[in-house]
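quick one, two chains, predict together pls
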Amino acid sequence: MGFSVAIAGATGAVGQEFLRVLEQRAFPVDSLRLMASARSAGKTLSWCGRDYKLEDLATADFTGVDVAFFSAGSGQAAQARRAAAEGALVVDNSSAFRMDPDVPLVVPEVNPEAARAHRGIIANPNCSTILLVVVLAPLARQVGIRRIVASTYQAVSGSGAIALAEFEAQIVAEREGRPLEHSVYPVPIHANVIPFVSGFGEGGITTEEWKMVRETRRILDMPNLAVSATCVRVPVRRAHSEAVNIEFERAVTPDEVRTWLRAADGVQVLDEPATLTFPTPRDAQDGDDVLVGRIRADPGHPQAIDLWLTGDQLRKGAALNAVQIAECVLEVPARTRA
Amino acid sequence: MGFSVAIAGATGAVGQEFLRVLEQRAFPVDSLRLMASARSAGKTLSWCGRDYKLEDLATADFTGVDVAFFSAGSGQAAQARRAAAEGALVVDNSSAFRMDPDVPLVVPEVNPEAARAHRGIIANPNCSTILLVVVLAPLARQVGIRRIVASTYQAVSGSGAIALAEFEAQIVAEREGRPLEHSVYPVPIHANVIPFVSGFGEGGITTEEWKMVRETRRILDMPNLAVSATCVRVPVRRAHSEAVNIEFERAVTPDEVRTWLRAADGVQVLDEPATLTFPTPRDAQDGDDVLVGRIRADPGHPQAIDLWLTGDQLRKGAALNAVQIAECVLEVPARTRA
């Protein structure tokens, strides 16, 4: 009754999160195969009390694999294609296929029907984009959305385990009076914020910002949606946050937005000024839902609403969303974590 | 040839910064008097190699004082009024007088003429607002501005020395595996971001956000300017940053914006994607200028520009701006720091 599951890129931050999510959701795993680079091949990882030997992704045979979760980077797109050709349903977490018209780009709460039309590969969207569209979609179903201006507050673990180690080492170095070393980021992230995520793209917009523009339009199926994004790295370990200004086609009230979001899947509203209730990334860490608060009317625009959201970018922003895609396509009843 | 100068609230973070700014700019101080709460009265502070005994602000006589820099909070507004009645030019850093039509609200690069029309008291604007209008004003002189959407990344020292100590203690506590204690902020700020600055006001908008809306309109003399602000505290020691979307009355290019800002007083453009040049709060700390980068066209709006700014909120956002106001009114030639 279960599936043969493979994880490609099992040693990375997202790969590790796949293992946690599969266990917590009791995903029906009949057999599990873990794959990584040749450098890691032969080492063992344990899952649910059993040891698994890492295979070299470059030579792994995907025959018989039902679903392969790829979190091995855009550079492994050829392996993802090969896995699909060998019969696996591939859910790929890299940016390689996200704008490919033959590959659905899916957030199950938003466009599950797109997942079911797959041709072997389904793309898992950018982390900041997933958190944003989980909140935008239930609003757009009620009243059309014209324009988004979003500023992000992105966690260090979004750059992987090495970035997190760099951050921790900077905290220690500063306490000991040593210079802050950095290699993942162009400047220290400890006690700093960096208005630069990924690399620079067209028009002085970063690739992360372009992903938020283009993937948001594609997932919501709103090709003309106006999106401005400023992506900023902050010294937070885990969970991305976003300040979002949403311009609707007609005036909506904060109470309407709260009502629509309370009824939405994957969203939790934490919004009560009187008790200083609003979500922070420390609240979202290790959780499944996108937390939303600070919902209020924009005093400068009669049709705009401001809000704040935060979500665990390694879970809903990556591994959890990919597993939910598989549950959707394989018709596995979703079981939330125990 | 010099002036009799008083600093009310000399022991606070901004008070200390006043002493540094007066020394660095060689402000012509003939005599200096330092005032604080009754609790601190009698203690001594040193400045430029001399010791000064702290006076109790409540009973200090301002007769003969030429200029009094107040950074003693809104609760001391009565003392500021008394100082002005006793003949001092009062530059007040609290929010008490900022929306008083009889009191000019001044940023010298933006509206110096308002300062000269004072009636004894001049209000120093909110820190985030000062940094923003220093950048907006030179743009608005070229092309009208319709709407601003700003998200802030505000440093812990903006909440005073106690907040900074709370942050440092949290860093140590987490390394030692102890719980993170907090009293200034409702949740820990270390490895977190908090979408809440000051307190809550009308419409679920914080008082800090309302200051950015109302003070920006007043300083720029644009009563109908549409402003949305989301104010967020970040684990940075010093220098506030802001991601700003600016909608103009006509399309402008990023190059035009760079040219206008390069010619502006108090602004430094650090913006070169090819060399990963953009400003972070660590660059702005202890400096006088507002640093601007990431200037780019908003892909979602033909008349909007996105940019990123950062500035030392204890200097240009508080003490430096107040001293510049005094220089402007007293016609002291501005001397930048050595």
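The first helix of chain B runs from residue 13 to 24.
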